[in-house]
Protein 1
Amino acid sequence: MKTHTQPHTNGSSLLHHPPKHIVKKANVKDYEKTYARSIEDREGFWADEAKKLKWYKKWQQVLDDSEKPFYKWFTGGKINIVGNAIDRHLETHRRNKLAMIWEGEPGDVKTLSYHALNREVSKFANVLKSMGVKKGEIVTIYMPQIPELPIAMLACAKIGAMHSVVYGGFSVEALAGRISDANSRVLVTADGGWRRGKITDLKTIANEAMDRSPTIEVCISVKRTGQEVHMENDRDFWYHDLMQLPIAAPRCDTEVMDSEDPLFILFTSGTTGKPKGLVHTHGGYSVYTSSTHRNVFDIKDEDRWWCAADPGWITGHSYLVYGPLINGATIMMYEGAPNHPYPNRWWNMIEKYGITILYTSPTAIRGLMRFGEQWPRRHDLSSLRLLGSVGEPINPEAWRWYHEVIGRGECPIMDTWWQTETGGMMIAPLPVTPLKPGSATKPLFGIEVAVVDDNANEVQPGEEGKLVIKAPWPGMARTIFGDPDRYVDTYWKQYEEKGWYKAGDSARIDEDGYIWIIGRIDDVIKVSGYRLGTAEVESALVSHSDVSEAAAIALPHEIKGNAIHTYVILKAGVHGSKKLEEELKKHVSSEMGPIAKPENVHFLESLPKTRSGKIMRRVLKARAMGLDEGDLSTLED
Ligand code: WTA
């Protein structure tokens, strides 16, 4: 093992250079040269990346910027993401290659070759068609991490329907709101899933959510756990029943789509109000996810790729399902908790399946690190070649443990910064890039970033500012579903004159041009790498009959990165107690999902507000952390 260096949080850290054998085999050896070319001739670069895919008809224009900021990519082109993720592999040696290895939490295993995946997807696509699902319609998917989840996503895409995947850890309110916003007629779910040895009650939650969202006409459930669930006549069908009927024919034509036709919406939290549905397309998203996955993770045909994210979030969409399948990789998927039944569960699977690349979050690493090195040490992890990190900044301790204990000091860590809105990785090293622990390093090809102040001036090296992206890229979200004005206001308004995208993160760039992400500048919270909005937690709290007003903030947490702390004003006559605190925590958890459960609930007489009535969360945060409360001149009293 190599001796490790002491990383800093800025500037002059010692570099971790990639091992020689990694450099020798790298798909892209010269970052600087390729990057320079990708900026000088952006459209030429993306055209070359797009040519690696299967198009039914070639595009006429690479980038159409006539309606800024509503950019269009590869216009005139005809494509379907499934044509690339499945169909084209069937004509090659990959037909019989494993597309997916899946392990359920109780230990059951399923594998699917590309041939078998095609068959399952085609059958389910025909089932959806028989339920009247049409091109452009949005199907909501609410499932545990089982193979039928990617199958359902791919089946929608294949027939030109859009999917809206709702994370299986969300609860009634989150699911109901998303179904209604998407106007979904069809919901695909499961009776339940396995998590930490227990059954999650997906169908019960789905039933309650359907009661609140009357658009649903059809609900298809996978039988995963076999527990008793309520099925409504004329509405509810079992997946396995439908898949046995003649309607589930094994062949289905892949719909020819326009490059700009929408592929999916994915709801994510914003600064205010309800979560917004970001829209991604068939053309640009296919090009962007496959290109970034191939370049950053140096994908080879023999790789076994494990992205441990849930498909319910963007990381799962782009790098568990679409990017890797387009690149013809073998993907690994696991249903349950990383420490069930013992903290060696992940390490055991890496050894058992010969995983070559692991892509996960700092929270997962910190969570497993807590159990000690003896668990990974019991396993042969020598198949690992590269590691990845996503979702939140990775702290030096977690970086070092990941690098030394999991990666034997020999596997470079790709710390990748990106967002639901960006569709794919934006700032990340390549395997040949010298690393500084805690820095996502440099912008990827075709991506130009800057760190600026409110007046669009670039700040000095080492200074903190707002992260902006200076030019469009193919994977960018095209709009917010049903609310184009909000899309413009949220991301493009502040730097309108320059035409820059505002990421919502603060960052700094050091003297060597390495980028250090600091965190969100808005009311978005990253808890365990999951993205939540203070507004959603607050609205869950005030939906309780005892609460009149509520505020939520994020405070640092050793494992989760951030944790949610809340402050409430109770209705007149109601008194705060330990019992009520517990009840409110449970209420948020059952309305939104366990990830949104607050650490604590403080009862207050009043909340710090501006004279216009806006809650000053930064004042609450400063108080909680014992810091200077800052400028209080706008405080109401
Ligand atoms: C944060 C997840 C630091 C960031 C793909 C961003 C990160 C938000 C990193 C988007 C990273 C993501 N280092 N912070 N490598 N990756 N973030 O939409 O604050 O769930 O704005 O997409 O996660 O979260 P989202």
Note: DSSP finds 19 helices and 30 strands in the chain.
Protein 2
Amino acid sequence: MDKIELNSLSYDEMKELMVSFGEKAFRGEQLFSYFNRNMGLTLDDIKLLPLQLRDRLKEVGRVNEVRLLKRFDSQLDNTKKYLFLLEDDNIIESVLMEHNHGLTVCISTQVGCSMGCSFCASTKEGRIRNLTPSEMLNQIYLIEKDIDNRISNIVLMGSGEPLDNYDNTLKFLDIIHHPKGHNISFRNITLSTCGIVPRIYDLAKENIPITLSISLHSPFDHIRMEMMPITKRYGIQELMEACRFYERTTRRRITFEYTLIEGVNDRVEDAEELARLLKGLNAHINLIPLNPIKEYDRNRPTTSRIESFKRQLNKRNIQVTIRKEKGSDISASCGQLRRDYLAKK
Ligand code: SAH
């Protein structure tokens, strides 16, 4: 039988495990806090638990270890990019960004990605595997240890499609939010998706007030299909209905990501249709100038064209932010760093 991944257990699961051993439930709380508050890494260090119990845990369980492989520091701002080594030698990346409201970590949820978006480096070799909850948690814990500081915001916007790894992502959210662990408010967490519609309904019903971010990138099905194959499965209308449901159910504002690509989605009619689509929705658009990757032969629009796209939306009462680029000197887009590193090896 496979051993239990102890550092992926939720608070309740940890307590149940202890009770199943004939121990008191508070032992579960101790172990949960050891991993998720004190960021403990091995069972040998947890002196709170009696030796006998530690041995028992080692018989049925194991601790999944993630190691910091390399850090890249931007010279332009305080952005840091991290490569982590997983137990099976896979490599994942995370980004630490400094904002006026604190420190944000952008984490990966899968090794690779199966969604196939044309402009995205993470998906070029498909999905290799899902990350477990502890592998998501440890991206945050190892970064905090590295900088000796606490982070305040988390975005699930690194490599992978979080809603394609639904159960592990939900468990990660439960653990990182738990008061006996890191106690991070759901309001400080953003989950970004390419639009797996049934999972958006599921997420809305979970009753967790995280921010949902939709990677839209075009208001037209025929254009979005070229960029994002998921559109063939779930069209834009269907996606928007799911967003309306999410907004109604959670009463949270939805964010839309819109990567601007010259000659693809930066025309006046794109802005017009986009504004029409979002009408009546409590929404905010983040415009992201394309980070060119070598597998996708397109460019970002000029700054003045980006500004004018923004004005078109503002004119129609849509809230828009142009995403400031961070750490552009240390390999730009999602999944690029890992690919560059693997290519050099
Ligand atoms: N799978 C999720 C989260 C990961 S991608 C999603 O699709 O939302 C995070 C964001 O980065 C998405 O909005 C994605 O479309 C965007 N992105 C990916 N590659 C990019 C690139 N080369 N330039 C600009 N944005 C990119």
Note: Residues 23 and 103 are 39 Å apart (CA to CA).
Protein 3
Amino acid sequence: MSGTLYLCATPIGNLEDMTLRALRVLKEVDLIAAEDTRNSIKLLNHFGIHTPMTSYHEYNKFDKGQQLISQLLEGKDIALVTDAGTPGISDPGEELVRMAHRAGVAVTALPGACAAVNALILSGLPTRRFCFEAFLPADKKERRQILKNLVQETRTVILYEAPHRLLRTLEELLAELGDRSLTVVRELTKKHETVFQTTVSAALDYYAEHEPKGECVLVLAGADGEAIRERQQQDWLSMPLEKHMEHYLSQGMPQKEAMKAVAADRGVSKRDIYAQLLENNGKI
Ligand code: SAM
């Protein structure tokens, strides 16, 4: 019988957020795999947990992952903890879970703090539909591509950011996505937790004057659906009518259907399209 891999959420700033189940499991497992053992030892010492610990981080995740899987297959129970919060969310963990599933090892998750969810529910922005973009990539091209994809994103967007990169990210958000409502949530669960409901441009002005400090999550309003539709309609209207028709005809759409689609794109009636085509060409 193989052991179980426990994905164990830990507090993101307030030790009282440690769950009773996490405390029990961390005491009972054979081994704790920690992203930063120096960091986790403080947590374990605080709670009087003396379970052996080993490191599992971004730079050893494949080799160390294999070793951990072998131990799990031998029947050992292992808990994975990361620096803070829920393992697998913007920290190593995802790979170990994949390996465990592939090896047929049981995996279970102990829920707890997660900065993204905490920030979202505090943001005051719509919570029904949201997407999590984690940290924007460091690579300029990749960042730009992701921001371009977000232009049309109507769900609330959650981003992680480090304080020293906050200004650059705000500048890019403003340039690529325009000014939107934004909530900057800092120091979650800590004494100086702040929820700054603002806009991207106002946050930029504020942080240009006040050096950003502490961990933060950016919760950004999704694109306004109506504004997107208007922009798309403008794009269609700037295209000659015949070219617009050709767009659909070239996809094999019958002429009547194409006229209907073109009319919907341009916000006019099918009869208007018919009349306009007739006027332009003398025939349809
Ligand atoms: N696994 C973690 C989780 O469940 O949220 C996230 C780890 S990720 C490496 C670290 C990022 O999470 C930080 O840069 C910050 O954006 C966010 N974060 C973590 N703790 C936070 C806190 N107490 N307040 C605000 N943001 C936090």
Note: The chain is about 45% helix and 20% strand.
